[in-house]
Structures are given as structure tokens and as C-alpha cells.
Specification:
The protein is mostly helical. The protein is 72% helix and 0% strand. The protein has helices at residues 2-61, 64-73, 82-86, 105-151, 154-161, 168-172, 178-188, 210-227, 229-241. It is elongated. The N and C termini lie far apart (85 Å).
């Protein structure tokens, strides 16, 4: 009778422990899956239009030298995604929908540059907000993993089972001993930290609002007009022939 009670208690303890262990583990795995979906959504839905915002600026700045000056102006060491921009077959199409305002060619061009920059700034804000949320999520999940490992050390948990008879479940797996079963179980159930979002999508610095760099940006636009007058005329004409709406 006492032996039956001991077996029943041992079974209940193992069952409760397993339910708590795998229940919490499932929650962490679900959080991790949601995180990776979150990163993938940023990669597919926010990154492509953001690249177009950068490409539009490059079209307006005409050459790589001015693109580099612009990148430095907004806090980048080099123009992001520029190699991809060079592969575009029809970069002028990115200018469609811009609003043409102003009396002179220079005035119209400056307004185009300002509008393109405002679109870039908005796109960067959306991307960076989502990026920061993903980074926080990764940090929270990794903290959960550390707490889980501290609370449920498999080596310590399985020590409890060493005094018990090897179950048929382990025997069915072909293990020769409980010790070997424990090692294999630890390997299969090991939790690794999830990588931060910058492992999958680019980490981009914050760019300043237009009001903070308006003078410098307009000065850059003026220089572009001076050195690439023919190209600027083409740009203005293209925008004129492709109005919004």
C-alpha cells in the first residue's frame, strides 16, 4: 500500500513538473515565433518602400558624390542601399507623384528635394519604430529564456529521475541508460538566445527632421542645379508630366 502511494505521488510530481516546464517553454517558443514573424514583416513591408525613399533622393541628387554628401549630412558614413539603386532600370519612375511647386527651375527643384526628404523622414520613422519594438521584444524573450534556464535546470530536474526505473519510453528510443537519455534530452530541449533584429534587417541611424537641415539641404540642391542643369531640367519635366493622382 505504501509503495502504491509513493508511486502515485512520484507520478503526480513528474506530471506537474512536466506540465509547468513544457507550458512555460511553449509560451517562450510562441513569443519567439511571433518575434521572427515581426522581423519578417518589417523586412517585407517596411524595408522595400524605405529603400525607394532613399532611391528617390539619389535620383534627385544625380550623382554618387552628392549622394555621399547627403548621406553625411543626415548622419550616415555612406549612402545606404546605393549599390541596389545603381541596378534600377527606371529610377525616374520613383519621382511620380511628387508635387511641382515654384516659379523658377531652382525653386521647383528645391521643393522637390524637400518633399522627397519629408517622405524619407516619414519612412525612416516608421521603420525605426518597428525596429526598436522588435529589438525590445528580442531582449524580453532572451530575459525570459535566462529565467527559464535558472528555474528549470534540466540536469537538476533529471537527477530526480535517476533513482527511478528507466521508463519504457526511454527504452523505445534505444538508449542504453538513463544517463544517455538525459544527455540527449538536454540537447534536444536546449534553448538558445534569439538574435537581435540587426542580424536580419539593417540597423539605420535616426535622420534629422527637415527643419534641422533645411538650409544645408537647400544649399546642396543649389549645387546640384549648378553642376547638373540638364539633368535637373529632365527631372522637373518628368515630374510635370507625372503629376499626383
Amino acid at each position: 500500500m505504501e509503495d502504491d502511494v509513493a508511486k502515485a505521488l512520484a507520478y503526480q510530481v513528474k506530471r506537474d513538473l512536466a506540465e509547468r516546464y513544457f507550458g512555460l517553454r511553449k509560451l517562450i517558443e510562441e513569443d519567439s515565433a511571433n518575434y521572427f514573424r515581426q522581423v519578417e514583416k518589417i523586412k517585407k513591408e517596411l524595408l522595400p518602400p524605405l529603400k525607394k525613399d532613399w532611391f528617390r533622393m539619389y535620383v534627385l541628387l544625380v550623382d554618387q558624390g552628392f549622394a555621399r554628401e547627403f548621406a553625411e549630412l543626415v548622419g550616415f558614413s555612406s549612402p545606404p542601399f546605393y549599390e541596389e539603386f545603381l541596378k534600377l532600370k527606371d529610377p525616374f519612375s520613383l519621382l511620380e507623384g511628387l508635387t511641382l511647386k515654384g516659379l523658377t527651375l531652382k525653386g521647383k527643384f528645391k521643393n522637390l528635394v524637400r518633399e522627397a526628404y519629408e517622405r524619407l523622414y516619414e519612412g525612416m520613422n516608421k521603420y525605426q519604430k518597428a525596429f526598436k519594438e522588435a529589438r525590445v521584444e528580442a531582449e524580453v524573450i532572451n530575459h525570459e529564456i535566462e529565467l527559464f534556464k535558472e528555474k528549470y535546470d534540466l540536469s537538476e530536474i533529471m537527477q530526480f529521475l535517476k533513482s527511478l526505473e528507466v521508463s519504457s519510453a526511454f527504452a523505445d528510443l534505444g538508449h542504453t541508460s538513463l544517463e544517455e537519455s538525459v544527455k540527449n534530452l538536454e540537447r534536444s530541449l536546449s534553448f538558445e538566445k534569439i538574435p537581435p533584429p540587426e542580424k536580419f534587417i539593417p540597423l539605420l541611424p535616426q535622420i534629422p527632421p527637415l527643419k534641422n537641415i533645411k538650409t544645408e539641404l537647400e544649399a546642396l540642391a543649389t549645387v546640384v542645379v549648378r553642376y547638373h542643369l540638364a539633368e535637373v531640367k529632365k527631372i522637373v519635366q518628368y515630374v510635370k508630366s507625372h503629376p499626383p493622382g
